Amino acid sequence: MVPRPRSIERTKVDYVRLYSPSKRDVPTPQSINLGQVNYSDTNESKPTVLEKNVHSPVTPGTVNFPPFEATSELEKSANQRISQYPEEQRRSAVLPLLHEVQHRHGFISPESIEWVAKKLDIAPIKVVEVVTFYPGFRQKAPGKLHFRVCRTLSCAMGGSYELMAKLCDLTGIDRSGSDAHTDPISVSPCGNYSVEYAECLASCGTAPVCLVNDDFHEGVTAEKAPDLIAKYNR
Amino acid sequence: MSDITYLPGKEPHEKEHRLIFKNIDRKGWDTSIKTYLKEDGYEMLKKALGMEPQAVINEVKTSGLRGRGGAGFPTGIKWGFIPPKNTKPVYLICNADESEPGTFKDRYILHQDPHQLIEGMVISAFAVGAHTAYIYIREEFPEAAVTLEKAIAEARKEGFLGKDIQGSGFDLEIYVHRGAAAYICGEETGLIESLEGKRPYPRIKPPYFPAAIGLYMAPTIVNNVESLCHVVHILRMGGEDYLKLGTPRNSGTRILCVSGDVKNPGYFEVQVGKVTFRELLYEMCGGPKDGRNFKAVIPGGSSSKILRCNESFKIGRGDDAKDMTFWDLPLDFDTLAAAGSMAGSGGVIVLDDSRRMSWVLNNITHFYAHESCGQCTPCREGSTWMMKVSDRIEGGQATPEDIKTLEQIAYQIDGKTVCAFGEASAWPVEAMIDKYRDELLSETSEDNNFKSLERQEQEKFLGTVHS
Q1: Is it the case that residue A36 has pLDDT exceeding 70?
Q2: What span, in angstroms and rounded, lies between the C-alpha atoms of A210 and B118?
């Protein structure tokens, strides 16, 4: 990422204007790079809520995923998704398109938000509001292996808290800074693993359960955690 | 059907009556259309296309099928709500956003028997006159989404989907739409908003009854996976015969998903109302774990009110009223409603005497605080307050006053929100306090002096505030 000139870096990006529907004076993604902000560089220590929601902070997992690029293959599957909805209701394809992006790039970056908005001919804020609402969309890079452990009643009784503790223990993840609402994902320092609590994965009869990337595992007690990780590292 | 063998350990209990789950965990069964066609698959689709749409609706009305998603609303009546003079396209949506804690029935249908769902959807779409149907599947089933898309492609190849299905002149396209891990998308108007590409804020009813004003402001029928699958069996058996299954007003079979502290948790497809809690928990699930006793049961997903195992109820009205203990209650919609809870989505969560109720309450309030969509103030703020207070009770830092506070918050959410999420988050708290007040009180202490951050700030500026 090319470092931005100091003047743009902290001058207030006018988000209200940037994410308003009038397209005339919206800067292109190239002219203002929303990609990475190095907070340590700036005088103010904490990012604002808006910045936190629109930016994707760099995590150790970022290296695992290619930067966003609208490849022809992505365009093709996106067009196919859009064709599933009535022509005048293209906006319906927001979720499918974001899934396509997340599946390939691991998380939803500001550039991909711009791309989805352009693709569907809607204001970027309408994509941002969707991304920030759904827990299924990640705004920062997870690890190569992303564990989603169910924490809801039946799994909790079956021992999912113990499973989470064991996973963190084995992978060196520190979950103390995470928050269920604003920052659910914790990434290991090596960037290979990340964990997150999920709300009910709908397999309560085989508790505790977890998802590893797209694979579902049932009856994963804390004792089975080392085997689970070993299975993917083989 | 004596030639069906099941995987070891997955054989149905003798009290079960398998319709929907006939092929689940079955030996030699797979998701391909070839396997499905071998067992007379898609025969009912052909039969339905030879009937009048109204005749299909009447058959479902006769069967008395009640929606299996949670509310138990009669499916045939729902289909009849489409305005007769409608000129807009009609949409059918399959609600596969199964996220009620304790429920895991749809998972098996979607993963192991997708063609049954597709057949049910084609019949239902034909009955209501829909030419586009969506399956809204939750994000946590990535594998099922792939399975479904493959099954749809297969069905289209065989001429069961697409243009002019089986030469009947009826067109239908089914698309899979993946959600993104939001519980509120299970609410039908929230689901529709989500399908339109927005935040899933539920719409207010009236006027937004989906059957009249739904997806893209056109008439829309939203049905649960299990309900749509039942349509196939209703056509096979005939509405009259289907009505004979189960008990009056609670016809057919339903899938009970048992989880928690029992020896053999899992799914059981039974005739509605023919199985009591005693039979379910002791005979079918093998009783409590060794050395423990049953304490309480949440009978229909985590939003239903908890029932104590040593309770007794008065069921029925007037002279017909009879006293029943918890163990004699049959699991049907009406009896559970009379017992002050609900049959909901069939997710039975069992708690034994090793569980602290404050811990259970805390887990549930955390779920609802996380999943509240934030549209209505009572629910958005209230669910978070309930979480904070229950955190305190669970951590042993609460005062007896906190139980009252919690109860007050719950009753102020109940009935004051746009959708049923308000009730869903308040009911478990109300019931838990109602039934386990003494146990919760025993974990509080007068000596605790918890001060919230807000209170601390207030006192800094205003001195000690007396409440």
Answers
A1: no
A2: 28
Domain B256-352: CATH architecture, name and number where available: Roll (3.10)
Q: For residues B113 and B72, is the Cβ–Cβ distance under 8 A? A: no
Residues of chain B positioned with their CB less than 8 A from the CB of A133:
182, 199-200, 373
Taking a contact as any Cβ pair under 8 Å apart, which residues of chain B between 24 and 83 contact chain A? none
Q: Does the distance separating the beta carbons of B370 and A153 come in below 8 Å?
A: no
B24's CB contacts (< 8 A; 6+ apart) are B10, B108, B109, B112, B113, B267
Question: Using the beta-carbon criterion (under 8 Å), do A205 and B265 form an inter-chain contact?
Answer: yes
Fold of B357-442: de novo design (two linked rop proteins) (1.20.1440)
| Span B17-62, pLDDT tens digits | 999 999 999 999 999 999 999 988 999 999 999 999 999 999 999 9
User: Over the stretch B112-147, which tens digit does the pLDDT of each residue have?
Assistant: 999 999 999 999 999 999 999 999 999 999 999 999
Chain B residues within an 8 Å CB radius of A93: 197
Say how far residue A162 (Cα) sits from the centre of its chain: 25
pTM, whole model, 2 decimals? 0.89
Task: Please give the span between the terminal C-alpha atoms of chain A, in angstroms, as a whole number.
Answer: 33
Considering CB atoms only, which of A92, A129, A148 is closest to B199? A129
Please tell me if residue B347 touches chain A, with a CB cutoff of 8 Å: yes
Q: What is the ipTM of this complex?
A: 0.91
How is chain A split into domains, by residue range?
6-133, 145-233
Report the top-level CATH class of A145-233.
Answer: alpha beta
Report, at the CATH architecture level, how domain B33-244 is classified: 3-Layer(aba) Sandwich (3.40)
CB-based contact, B194 to chain A, within 8 Å: yes
Q: Do A95 and B179 touch (CB under 8 A)?
A: yes
Q: pLDDT class for B372, splitting at 50, 70, 90?
A: very high
Per domain, the residue ranges of chain B are: 33-244, 256-352, 357-442
Residue type, B272: V
